[in-house]
């Protein structure tokens, strides 16, 4: 054993029994990763061998630490994308890779990106994938860097493209053999990147898993700006507290929970629920404290948020929030005091380059100004997927039906736009594009029901799930089976999980346009009580 190899094994004392198992050649190859590695505009920042079980501190990330789920070589790359921008990419290359199908998976980002999804790199490298992640071109979940258009361009699409190419090159270089299949998984911004890849770079991935995609991004920001104005500041007459949103949810359930035939607090088909917030209006002399009702101003706020967003001259901009979207996820509150995440920062750092821009100034002319600009293709809404169809590659999309941040309606609309552009029925789309609505699932994760499907941005929200739920049933492995065995998914299995990852229920969510339908008898937490119709 070479001494240099030994010292570089992070966190490992040679005196531990595990040291006896260190694969010396693998460790040496890891340390010497940079030797002979070539990829355009790419510099190797570090390469370290990491033992399974190591708690890895993450000083540059949005998380504190992550536990390694495999023995792997951790490679950190810097890719220069212009004279003023760069993308940091990591490749976690597990020892047990050749026997696990020689696969690569790119783990997509969320929100403003800037945080490599380390929990997912751990999860997917533990499943034997060469796991790649990147920072979308800036550090942290912030948008300030977007005043530089090169950084904005990276976030929109360039980061995922260059990280894909570097990740593939790193994998092939390290294992000295060609990887067999590549996959992309991502939720929210990552879901949007997934659609972008399917639309513009359909040959890069054999399989793409796009969850709750933030397609129509500029339109989302317009809707958030208008929602922020509708909700108003905390304490203003239009504002609803968390308890009041929970009451809206309860009223929604009182009106609509039984439409799907079972009272379980879950709407299988929110579109069937024509919830009328007027039922919550206080009668004369009534108050929230005494009667649990809302003022006319608050009822109007609810109506505004649940209605489609339209601009000048009735221009359709974006769907409204769906009934049953979980206020418990807290996101609905962001339209008040937390409006900063999306709309405010988009307007400040991308649209106006003015850090003091206030959302109160937003109006429908600003909306037109936004919609008349390309934003480097941030809409990610191209409905022509003939490139993907011709490539033979697969796009699996799913969306939580209780998603308050990105209404699932947007994904139905995207699906319909593809069908319409390509003049294909759903069975015509089936060979390359399948969409699964997931009832009760919030934005990427959380919710009351069987929302853990083993997809992107999930493991970090369900402690223990990566251990307790069979990986073979995950959305990720459903995609792998579709690509590698031509076993196309008809359902996605969702798990309702307890605090330790224990299974409290299961449901097989059906492929759109079929509906997940209660058989009329049996425990709703049992997947046998449901069928696709
Ligand atoms: C930036 O926004 C502030 C606040 O709305 C406004 O007063 C100011 O005029 C803007 N600056 C520029 C350069 O447009
Ligand atoms: C994508 O969105 C833009 C902006 O709303 C719109 O102009 C364009 O028509 C949309 N494209 C498709 C294919 O729907
Ligand atoms: C489909 O999309 C392509 C590319 O955006 C566009 O050129 C074409 O006109 C669309 N076709 C239909 C029928 O909408």
Q: What features would you describe in this structure?
A:
By secondary structure, the protein is of the alpha/beta class. The protein contains 16 helices and 17 strands. A nine-stranded mixed beta sheet has the order 1-4-5-7-6-8-9-12-13, sandwiched between helices. It has a two-stranded antiparallel ribbon with strand order 2-3. It has a two-stranded antiparallel sheet with strand order 10-11. Mean pLDDT is 92; it is low at 1-17. The site of one 2-acetamido-2-deoxy-beta-D-glucopyranose has 5 residues, from loops.
* Estimated helix fraction: 25-40%
Number of E-state strands: 17
Shape: globular
Mean pLDDT: 92
| N/C terminus separation | 62 Å
SS-based class: alpha/beta
Order of strands in the sheet with most strands:
1-4-5-7-6-8-9-12-13
Oligomeric composition of the shown chains: single chain
Small molecules bound in the structure, each named once: 2-acetamido-2-deoxy-beta-D-glucopyranose
InterPro entries: AB_hydrolase_fold, Tannase/feruloyl_esterase
Catalytic activity: feruloyl-polysaccharide + H2O = ferulate + polysaccharide
Family: Belongs to the tannase family.
Signal peptide: 1-20
In summary, what is this structure?
The chain is α/β, with parallel strands linked by helices. It has a domain of 116 residues.
Q: Mind sketching the topology for me?
A:
Layout: H1 3-8, H2 24-31, E1 42-50, E2 55-57, E3 65-67, E4 72-82, E5 85-94, E6 103-107, H3 118-126, E7 130-134, H4 149-175, E8 181-187, H5 189-200, E9 207-211, H6 217-231, H7 242-256, H8 288-291, H9 296-306, E10 309-310, E11 316-318, H10 340-351, H11 364-371, H12 386-391, E12 394-400, H13 409-422, H14 426-429, E13 433-438, H15 465-468, H16 475-485, E14 491-497, E15 503-510, E16 516-518, E17 530-532
Parallel strand pairs: 6-7, 6-8, 8-9, 9-12, 12-13
Antiparallel strand pairs: 1-4, 2-3, 4-5, 5-7, 10-11, 14-15, 16-17
One 2-acetamido-2-deoxy-beta-D-glucopyranose binds next to loops.
Organism: Arthrobotrys conoides
InterPro entries: AB_hydrolase_fold, Tannase/feruloyl_esterase
GO molecular function, one term: feruloyl esterase activity
